[in-house]
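pasting for ref. prot 1 ->
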Amino acid sequence: MQEFIAFNEQRAEIYWWMSSLFARELTDADLHEYHGGEMYTFLSGLGMTEELKAPVEAFREVINQSNTRPDEQLELAADFCGLFLSTPKTGALPYASMYVGTSGLLNDKPAQDMNVLMNDYAIAQRKEFNEPADHLAVELDFMGNLIIMANQQDTEEKREELMQAQLSFVNTMLLNWLPLFVKECQNRDQFGFYAAAANLLLAFCKLDAAFLAGE
C-alpha cells in the first residue's frame, strides 16, 4: 500500500510540474531551479524509463541551450506569450476546444466537460488562474488531484474506481488532443523549449495510460 501511495505521489508531482510549466511564464527563480541539481536529478529519474529517455534528453538539451541565451527569462517569456497567449493563426493555444471542439472557439464542449468533471469530483480550479476549464494547465492539475484522491480512499474498490477514472481522463481529455497540440508547438516554437516540454508531456501521458490500463 505504501508503494502504491508513493508511486501515485510521484505521478501527481509530474502532472503538477507540467501544469505549472504551461500555466505561466518561468521566472528567474524558476530558471535557477531548472539549471540546478534537483531538476537534473528529477529528469534523470524520468529518463531511466525507456519510453521517456529520448524526450527527456531532448528537453535537457534545450534547457542547456536556454542557459546560453543573452536574456533567458525575457526570451522564454516571449516564447510563452507567442505560443500560448496569441491567436490560433500564430500560436499553439493550450485549450482542448481549439483542437477537438466543433466551433473552433474557446469554451466549446471540452471546457463544458471539464466543468462537469470538476463538479463531480469536487476538484476546484485555482481561483487565481482565470482560464477556461479545458486549458492544459487546468486539466493537468485536475489529473494530479484525481491521483491523490485515489490515495485517500479507504477501500481497494474505491481506489480502483478512481484509477479507472484517471485512465478515462487521460484517454478522453488529454490524449485526444495532446498530439495535435504538440505538433503545433513543434511548428511554432522556433527555439524549442516548450515544444520539447510538450513532447515530454505527451510521452508521459502515453506511458501513464499504459500503466493505468495494466499494460
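and prot 2 ->
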Amino acid sequence: MEEIRCNWVSDDPLYREYHDKVWGRPVYDSKELFAKLCLDGQQAGLSWITILKKQQNYEQAFADFEPAVIATFDDAKVEELMANPGIVRNRLKIHSIIRNAKGYLAYTADGKDFSEFLWSFVGGKPLVNQFTSMSQVPAQTPESEAMSKALKKLGFNFVGPTICYAFMQAVGMVNDHLVDCIAYDACCGGK
C-alpha cells in the first residue's frame, strides 16, 4: 500500500524526511522557535526546499541562531555573510535575522517567555484542521495576521501574515497535514 503524503512534498529524500518527521510537530523551545521563524523569513520569494537544503549553512553562519551572538553582528559580519554561498545572499534578509535577534532579546530581557508569546496566538495548543485538499489550506489566517502585527511591534521583520502562517504550520501550532497524510495523526497528538 502506497504511503500518502501532502502533495507539496517532492520525492527529494530530505524534503520527505522534513515532511514526515518535522513539519507540523509541535515545537515549544523559545530558541528553536526563533530559529524557525528566521528561516521562514528567509524563504520569502523562494521555495522551502531551497532554505531546507541550506539550513545547516544558516546554523553555522548565524551561530546556531543564538540571539545574543547574532545581535552583535556588525557591518563587517554582514559583508562576510554576503560572501557566503551557503546561504541566501540577500542583504535585507541577513539584516532581518540580526534585527529579529535584537527583538527577541528585548522581549525576553525581563523574563518573558518567547514560546508562550507565540503559542498564545493559538490558545497555547495546536489548532487541528481537517483538510482533505491543499486547496482548502489558507495562506494566512486571523491568528497569523495577529502574530505578524505583534512581532512587527517588537521590531521583527520578514514576518508578514503569510510567513507567520507557514511558520505556524511548520512548528505545529496548526496541523495542516491533509487528513489522509501519513503524518496527520502524529501531529494530532494521537487523536
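The chain has a mean pLDDT of 95.
The chain has one domain: 12-185.
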